[in-house]
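Good day; I would like, with your permission, to put a structural problem before you. A protein sequence and the structure tokens that stand for its backbone fold form the material at issue. The record follows directly beneath this note:
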Amino acid sequence: MRLEIMRSRRRHKTVAARIVGDTLQVRAPVDLPQAELEGIIARLKTKLEREIGRQRVVNDAALAARAAALNRRFFAGKLLIRRVGYVHNQRQRFGSCSPHAGTIRISERVAFMPGWVRDYVLIHEMAHLIEPNHSPRFWALVNRYPWTERARGYLMGACTVNTRGM
């Protein structure tokens, strides 16, 4: 990635950055010392690289494609899913579903878990499109997925680690 620094007399306190093509454009005040600017740029690069990496993992289109494949395999393609996507503000749950709207939201945390756990969370939420509760009929739908118990154990462990701050 190329770096382009633009100094401005109108800019007094802040440094701004954006990516244009393969170039990181940085706008900085004229009187900001070069050493200080280099430190800011290093932090900005780290932050931008982390965000780009997160965007590669947290991909709504890939999640929707996976949900469609699971719908075909475990629900004979009968579910009407209007929207499925990741959300970053879901801290207490791994997923949620609005059966009437046909929407499924999956916590971004799940994107960084093994694929079989992500599949379980999707199937769990997809089952709510048929049974909007946790009745025996709901669990019969979820238990079609052969990795259900293992995935539930994984998620219980993830909850324990999260609440203890490990």
